[in-house]
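This week, think about what follows.
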Amino acid sequence: MEREMNFFDLCVACWHALCRGCAALGRLLARALRLSYRYWWLVLICVALGVVAALYYTRQGNIIYKVNAVALLNGPTVQQFEQAYMPLRSAQQLPPDSPLRPWLMENKLRRFETYRVIDCMGDSVADYIDFREKSSPTDTVNVQMQDRLCLQFRIKQRDLDLLPAVEAEVMGFLNGNPALQAAHAVYLRNLLDEVKFNHDQTQKLDSLTTHYYFHSHPGAEPLGAAKNGLVFMGDWRVHLFLTSIYAHRHYADYMDQRLQLATAPVVLENHFTVDAAPVNDRRKMVVLMFLLGWIGACVLAELIDKRKALSAWLKA
């Protein structure tokens, strides 16, 4: 009969498993150190090759940078935009006459990606970009914005002078998409109607305030004035509709800004900017390749050390 495990037993089992894992890791590290000492020449060769490869990969002109820009979608949905953006991920999907096609084939440009823009305050203002792709479409706190996306691609240092031309070609390719143009036409028509409606409502609210002030003012009647034998006591101060007017004006100003930006299906909030830290940073790559060279040398040393047993196993 199996005994049920309670929470304390589970914690003890996890602790024992952790201790066994640490002991196994210690034995593995000790074995690697012994192999490194015995086959120092092999370790030296592999580590040197790894460092040389890292230095070659991070040579001047081959440094790779990430380039980012936040795009505002004027009408197209995120799904429509992703469909239009998809050809940029592969040179074969681009039109033969596109200037972007040879740049992608020559690896001057690579890894065109999109990342969601997150609004944490619910105020339609971007707070951060989800580069780690940890956000959820159903999250009601860190909301994925439906009208903004971060566009990213990678470019080598020696090709940075192409950046203005790349930006122009990418935006021309996206804004020339028929599906995005159709969505933008509907959006622009509705936006113009809403902007006109907002301005009309502002004038109506102002007229209502004026009418209320001049026609509903109690005049010079003092507090406690008598009407039909009744005495009315109270505060006769006029309360204007300023709160409603200011709230509506704030929304109207926001829509005016959207109209100014709605010049194309996709517009950039800022130009493509280069990240300061390169993808293949020299110090990071040297350390990484040093570790990979050492691990590879230890694996080869283990195979050499066990070559007789391995040969017998293969022949069995």
